[in-house]
Amino acid sequence: MCARRASIEESLLSFQTEFNLNPSQPLFKITYKSSPIWPISSSVSDHKKITRIAILDSSFNPPTNAHYHLIVRSVTNIFFQNDKPIIIQTPEGRQQIKEQGLEFFDSCLLLYATKNADKILSSSDANHVDRLLMMETLASHIQSTAPSDTHFTALKNLAVGVVTHPRFIDKAHGILSLLLSLSNSSFGFSDNISRQFSLYFIMGYDTVIRLFNPQYYTNMREELAPFFETNYIICANREGYDGEEAEEQFYQNEIVREIIGIEGEKIIRIKLDNEIAKISSTRVRDIVRNELRVKNKESTKEQNKVQSDLLELCPEPIVEFVIQKGLYRKEQ
To answer: What is the pTM of this model?
Structure first.
C-alpha cells in the first residue's frame, strides 16, 4: 500500500504540474485501469466503432454501498438497440438481450474531480490520495463481485481517473480529449478504424438539478446543448429530494426539454431501492467522527459496534480502509 500511495502522489504531482501550464484547459488522467486497452472491452471486435463508458463521478468521501449499486445497477439494467437505451430490470426481460442482440456497456470509470463547484476540501475530509486509493479499493470490490454474465463485462473493465474541472461539460471534454489522443494501436486495433466514445455520467437526481442550474454557466442553453449531443446522463432517485411528482415536473420543464430533446433519451432514469438511495457519505463520516478518536482509545466492543454500523453503509473493504487509516476521526 505504501508503494501504491507513493505512486499516486507522484502521479498527482505530475498532473498538477501539467494543469498549471494551462489552467483553463480541462485535464483528465487515469490513475488505475484493470486492462491495458481500457476503455475498450477485450471481447469487442474491430467492427464495433462506439465504445460506451459508464462513469460514476463523485467525491468518494468515502465510497458507499450507494456508489456500488449506482454503477452495478446502471451496467446490469441498461442496454442498447440502434443506439437507443433500453432499461431491463427483470430476469425475464433479460431474455431480450440474446433474442434481440442488444448491446451493452464496454467499461466503467470511477471519476474524481480535484475541484468541487460547491465545496472546499476541509481538514476533516479524506485527502486526494486516500480518495483515489479508496476508489481503487471499490473498483476491485466491483470486479470481484460482478456477475459472470458476458453482458456485464464492463464491471470487470474498470478505471479510476482524476479530472481538474468541476463542471460536467468540462469533465467530458477532458476525458474525450485524452481518449481521442490515443492511437488505435494502443487499443490493439488497426489504424483505419474510426473509434467513437459515448460517455454516460451516472448521478443522483440532486446532481441533475445542479447540472441545470444557470449559475454555473454564462449561457446554459448554448453550453449544455453540445454536451448532450455526445454525452448522456443516468439519473438515479435520491432520498430526501423533492419526491417523484416534483421530479416529473423538473423533467417536463421547457428549458430542460429544449436542451435534452422531447423524447428524453439523453437522460436515462433508474431506480435504486429506498434503503440504498438514502445512504450518504456524510452519514459515514458522522458515525466515525462521533464514535472514534484519533488515538484509538475505544474499547474493542466500541470499535466492533462502529464497524457493524459502517458495514450497513459501505462495502467491507472500504470500512477496513477507513478504520485502518484513521480517516474522519476526532482529534481529541
So the answer is: 0.93
